[in-house]
Amino acid sequence: MKLTFLGAAGEVTGSSYLVETGGLKFLIDCGMFQGGREADAKNRRVFACDPREIAFVLLSHAHIDHSGLIPRLVAKGFRGAVYATRATCELLGVMLPDSAHLQEREAEYDRTGRAPLYTVAEATASLRHLVPVEYGAEVRPHAQVRCAFRDAGHILGSAIVEVEAGGAKIVFSGDLGQPGHPIVRDPTPVAAADVLLIESTYGDRLHKSLTQTLDEFAFALNDTLASRKGNVVIPAFAVGRTQDILYFIAELRRQKRVPAFDVYVDSPMAVAATRITLAHPELQDRESLRMDEWLKGGPGGRVHFTEDVEDSKRINSIRSGAVIISASGMCDGGRIKHHLKYNISRPECAIVFVGFQAAGSLGRRIVDGAKRVNLYREPYPVRAKLFTIGGLSAHADRDALLGWLGNFRAAPRRCWVVHGEPLAAHSLREAIERRYGWRAAVPALRQTVEL
Ligand SMILES: [Zn+2]
Fold it and tell me: Separation of 250 CA from ligand 1 center, angstroms?
């Protein structure tokens, strides 16, 4: 059996692994590379073989860095099924066409005349390949392969993927959530694997506690809205993070720790994702506030979901007292760029970063202290106050990753540390070796290993 790391090797995007066993080829994840100049070129050459030879895809969750190349795979000839949990399939129904729309728009503005990675029509066509599966159920995508999806506690529908093929059990952690995170359940413990792929986004860091995180968030809101009378702009992934933020705002309001303010969720996808989340109360963590409570907004403030462009433009004229949640989470595209344009140069405003900012993204440049940034080819000085609230992450931190690994009863024969920038990945690898005495390795991009 052979495993090829097609992405998320020494970086956090492009998650995709090709498994070959006895003439059978399949993919675990089919993600898009995002951020950085090389992403587009990587996306265009990613498949290590003819997509027609790939029998099926096992998909851990809906985030585009795990799912975003499915339309391209299908457009290039893939004929098989894509297995994912039911909630993931529903999310993809809005996310893949939206991703295609962004690709088409980028291609329009591209001076070199590059074609989009895929079109809306191709994305829509690819949805027919999705096969929804239930958590915990045995799935037989092929006579020689058995698999199961376990709740990874990262976003709605996210899964740890267990695959038995070629006489070995491969466990792919997917993106693991932080235990105790609201809305989603805690990651499911797994006890055995021959081959383990573990994510390492925060393999070198510990998150602040939820209490401390809420304190920081309350401070950012009070400081900006009450003291400095500006707006708060929150770049947030539409799926997962936006619902988390709504949840935390509801919680702070319930505790009467923040003033009344209006919240604008300005991303059609965030609106759709919130609707899908509300339709799945059975997947919700029991400790969480009831979902309908998030949307009430609390006394004196409301939650507005904008869908059309006119609604979105109206937000531009609000000078103070608004919390604007928009995508993309790393500021590289989408309506967030408009909100940055209207707020980033105003010292009374704040940009609150609540998620990982990959190297090369606009969000990362701002977090790293850029004095000015280009938005729609115009330079804007960065004068807004910046807050980074790490504890809201939907990813397990180092201790939570090590804790999840502690459920294994025996050392996996092979352990690969994936989905992390080099420092994070190597730091987790060393920690695994120190704590558990397992041999672990960080793969190189496109490296093939014999299992
Ligand atoms: Zn993810």
Answer: 24
